[in-house]
Design a protein that fits this description.
Largest sheet: 9 strands, mixed
Order of helices and strands: HHHHEEEHEHEHEHEHEHEHHHEHHEE
Distance between the termini: 54 Å
Radius of gyration: 23 Å
CATH class of the largest domain: Alpha Beta
Number of domains: 3
CATH topology of the largest domain: Rossmann fold
Oligomer: single chain
Strand content: 5-15%
Structural class: alpha/beta
Number of helices: 15
Helix content: 40-55%
């Protein structure tokens, strides 16, 4: 795909309300300049939108200045570094606003409910993501609370790269907790991206549309926890339409927050994901091929306390909680994460011992 248009004019055309993203790309590819494109679409303008090329360019210039001030670059489908996966994100974004470093392969999208469970969704997400990040996989998610936040944070804790796709301008991230995480992502070499202009605040209708960008940037998509009608199920449908491998983590049948993944598995729309290594094998991503050395084992402070007790000898969760002073729920969450990573094993009688 090629155009002779400068970025200023592509951005200017995007301000025409009667032009969709697809039309912006089409007109930039098939017309010699902004003026000739405006001539063709003039009959689509309403009385309040018949703006001249100079007016549109002035708006575009102001946006480019705003992007420069907040360290944001704009990619279009005509740029060589525009993510190829986004060409399947119908409708394809005409503009992609990027802060940070956008590494696009290999990528795994991780999505799930904002109201995740501390005893299951969180440790599973953190365990899986840590394994993927340690072998060089980029984790893509949406910077929301719950599963998204756990995915981004676990990636950063493992020294990995993560991309946050937001439903607002990349300079208008909210709430403050998400803003703090966005800055941490950028500080660690990741990226915050959006198809929405700088300065735009998030709107309810932006979030479902944003989900197709998450899935399009990903080589595979994993749903951890979701209700049957949650936003993650919208992401799952986008993944299917885009031809992305879709995985679901099975959960307790008594949990409404596992109803979405379980439904995807029941209908055959998703592959059952039980270990992090399973997905690496499916994608052909071997540890040896991606890292010249084995990554060091890392623990959270809670996991470290639990491991110290498990290293002494088999203990029940209650005994570990008593020895460490940790809450019983925190101990169970840590044990689940450690067991998924093969660092502890469960013995008869619900005892646990360290494997290393």
């Amino acid at each position: 795909m090629h155009t002779s248009w400068p970025l200023l004019d592509i951005v200017a055309l995007s301000y025409v309300r009667s032009c969709s993203a697809a039309q912006v790309v089409l007109y930039a590819a098939t017309h010699s300049d902004l003026e000739s494109a405006l001539d063709e679409v003039h009959d689509l303008f309403d009385s309040n939108d018949a703006r001249s090329a100079s007016t549109l360019r002035a708006q575009a210039a102001a946006l480019l200045e705003q992007c420069a001030r907040c360290g944001t670059r704009i990619l279009t489908p005509f740029d060589v570094d525009f993510p190829s996966g986004l060409r399947t994100a119908l409708p394809m974004p005409a503009l992609l606003f990027v802060r940070g470093t956008l590494r696009t392969a290999p990528c795994i999208g991780v999505v799930g409910t904002r109201r995740s469970t501390d005893g299951y969704g969180r440790p599973v997400t953190e365990s899986f993501v840590r394994t993927w990040a340690e072998v060089g996989v980029t984790i893509v998610s949406g910077l929301a609370t719950g599963i998204d936040t756990f995915a981004h944070t676990a990636t950063l804790d493992a020294g990995g790269h993560t991309i946050a796709v937001v439903a607002c301008g990349v300079d208008r991230v909210t709430p403050s907790s998400a803003l703090w995480l966005a800055e941490r992502i950028l500080d660690h070499g990741g990226a915050v991206v959006s198809e929405y202009r700088c300065g735009l605040k998030a709107m309810p209708g932006y979030f479902p549309v944003r989900n197709r960008v998450i899935t399009a940037l990903s080589d595979a998509v994993v749903v951890v926890e979701s209700t049957e009608k949650g936003g993650s199920m919208i992401s799952a449908e986008f993944a299917r339409k885009q031809g992305r491998p879709l995985y679901a983590v099975p959960g307790p049948v008594t949990s409404t927050r596992s109803a979405g993944p379980n439904a995807l598995l029941r209908t055959g729309h998703a592959i059952c994901l039980q270990t992090a290594e399973q997905l690496l094998d499916d994608l052909g991503l071997r540890r040896q091929a991606m890292l010249p050395f084995a990554p060091p084992v890392t623990y959270t402070p809670v996991e470290l306390d639990v491991m110290r007790v498990c290293a002494i000898g088999p203990r029940t969760a209650d005994a570990i909680a008593t020895a460490t002073g940790l809450a019983h729920g925190d101990v169970l969450a840590a044990l689940l994460g450690l067991e998924f990573r093969g660092l502890v094993r469960r013995l008869p009688g619900q005892h646990y011992e360290a494997t290393t």
